[in-house]
Amino acid sequence: MAVSDPLWITAQGLPTLRRENKRKDFKKLADVIVQYQIAEIVVGYPLRLSGVEGVQSEKMQVFAGELRKHFKLPVHLWDERLTSSQAHRVLKEAEISIEKRSQAVDRMAAMLILQSWMEARDR
Question: Which of 2, 13, 22, 95 has a C-alpha 20 to 30 A away from that of 104?
Answer without folding.
Answer: 22
